[in-house]
Specification:
Order of helices and strands: EEEHHHEEHEHEEEEEE
Bound molecules: zinc ion
Strand order of the largest sheet: 6-10-9-8-7
Helix content: 10-25%
Structural class: alpha+beta
């Protein structure tokens, strides 16, 4: 990334200062004024929560992160989302097979992190199981704990709002030059487990914006967090992608609310097959398509010089 306020290669970008007037003037999430004279309590926020990824991933604060001032309410709200999304994405992280510490952490998190909608249920106990019957035989399927869709979309929105401000603000301590992203402009197309990164939708979106200028291509926390932002041309749609704990990708775009953004029009349908259907309960499945590593080009873009 270039041309970013207080950016130095390979280090955290810090917009936070103890003094409000030397920090960013608006909460990058809810867009309320939190500068000098504001009554809204605010504090230090990390775009990628330190506990969202395995411990030690930020190399004692030397690796990239984005640190700024946020209102306390958004800060607390985001930690809660991170807690859940981190636990569910670490459970299926390939990092568990490579590093014992990551495996331990994933277990600990799933044993202490509670399911967001089923109160008092630990994530570790929330495997979804279903028995399928085909005439004479039946078999059971168990799916790992799933990330709650509302939590996941909300966390993606907050992270994209942070990134948007990072690359579009010329001086966030100056009220007039902060780039803030209204939440209604952020579209989420979908969320995909690693076992399905080769599905036809993801491949097609990646192809469509392959040549778009790239404004951020971040890989930090030992690869446990990745983010990408591209824009076709000034005034046009943006494309964004996030990768969490090496196991989950969420993609979307920035476009006005209303009509489906052009980037997502006419995409191939992902085919679902219905296995059983009884009354209002339908079980369906979709064959997942893994992506060979040498064909994975989503995060391979060169950052466009916007200085
Ligand atoms: Zn806020």
């Amino acid at each position: 990334m270039t041309g970013i306020f207080r950016y130095k290669l390979g280090q955290p970008v810090t917009w936070y200062d103890r003094r409000k007037k030397r920090s960013n003037q608006y909460c990058l999430y809810c867009q309320r004024f939190i500068g000098e004279g504001s009554e809204i309590p605010s504090n230090k926020e990390h775009l990628i929560g330190k506990n969202f990824v395995p411990g030690g991933s930020f190399d004692n604060g030397r690796a990239f992160n984005f640190v700024f001032r946020a209102c306390e309410q958004c800060n607390t709200d985001k930690s809660r989302l991170e807690d859940h999304v981190s636990a569910t994405t670490l459970i299926s992280s390939p990092g568990r097979g490579m590093d014992e510490k990551v495996d331990d952490l994933a277990r600990r998190k799933s044993n202490s992190s509670y399911h967001p909608t089923q109160k008092s249920m630990k994530l570790a106990d929330s495997n979804e199981s279903v028995t399928l019957n085909f005439g004479d035989f039946s078999f059971g399927l168990v799916a790992p704990p799933q990330t709650n869709e509302r939590y996941r979309n909300r966390l993606a929105l907050l992270q994209v709002q942070g990134l948007y401000a990072l690359i579009t603000s010329s001086d966030p301590t100056n009220k007039l030059s902060v780039g803030l992203l209204p939440s209604e402009n952020c579209w989420v197309l979908g969320c995909y487990p690693r076992s399905d990164w080769g599905n036809s939708q993801l491949i097609e979106v990646t192809r469509r914006c392959e040549k778009w200028p790239c404004y951020a291509n971040i890989s930090t926390a030992n690869g446990y967090f990745k983010a990408l932002m591209k824009r076709e041309a000034p005034d046009n749609e943006w494309f964004w992608a996030l990768e969490w704990n090496k196991s989950t990708r969420v993609i979307g775009c920035l476009a006005p609310p209303g009509e489906l953004p052009r980037l997502f029009q006419g995409l191939p349908e992902l085919e679902w097959k219905v296995v059983t259907s009884e009354g209002s309960v339908t079980h369906r499945y979709r064959e997942e398509t893994p992506l060979p590593e040498d064909q994975d080009t989503l995060f391979s873009a060169q950052v466009h010089d916007c200085a």
